[in-house]
Amino acid sequence: MNSQITLTKLYQMKKKGEKIVALTAYDYPFAKMVDESGVHMILVGDSLGMVVQGETSTLPVTMDEMIYHTRIVGKAVKNAMVIGDMPFLSYQVSIEDAVYNAGRFLKETGAAAVKLEGGAAVSNTIRAITKASIPVQAHIGLTPQSVHQMGGFKVQRDEERLLSDAREVEAAGAFSVVLEGIPADISRKITEAISIPTIGIGAGPDCDGQILVLHDLLGLHDRHLPKFVKQYANLRKAAKKSISSYVSEVQNGKFPSEEHCY
Ligand code: KIV
Predict the structure, then answer these.
(1) Which regions of the chain are under pLDDT 50?
(2) Given 117, 168, 170, 180, which residue is catalytic?
(3) Is domain 7-231 annotated with CATH 2.60.40.2310?
């Protein structure tokens, strides 16, 4: 176990009003950079389906793929809490499956916790997984695995339901909850109403912490970016420029030059 960030530390941060910084990662080199930059939580998100595997939703991602990516992230991380994201159908079919699959993250990777999507509807599942001593982060609001039921990736505005979902996942034992695609004023009310840290994505500034998808933040792809994303770099442009230079240098005989020869 590498993590310096414990559940106790996260609760203290919420109490003191210190912002929790979370980010996704899916492989060793990026996970190392994210960890070295002082991020507190690294989520190996099932967003990997969309930003790494080229899928149009997170639905095709499998348990074995999540285990593979979480294991290589786990090897790179020394400080942050690594959280494995439970993919579609890994926890919806039965509570037994859910506990077993959640346990695989802790047993086979460097993860210290798991995340799963849903509010009141998955509270019994959260209860069973936490009973098996596996910390669970819940995820409410815009839950991408329910894209078809929601009729698209849409902001969720039912305040009463969102507040009740947040209270239910807290009561079921979740140590934290991701609030995705929720108007800022509702996220603020949820953050004030519960004692576990809220981590926002498209949920305004008043959550206890923030999370973004690494590939969105770094500009690593040319997909549509939602309004809530701030792109801090355009690494796709930089990478393409470097690759094009390599292509033309090989073609015009400039590479390899003498300094790259034995
Ligand atoms: O899969 C993911 O990356 C996520 C975050 C966007 C919260 O669920």
Answers:
(1) none
(2) 180
(3) no
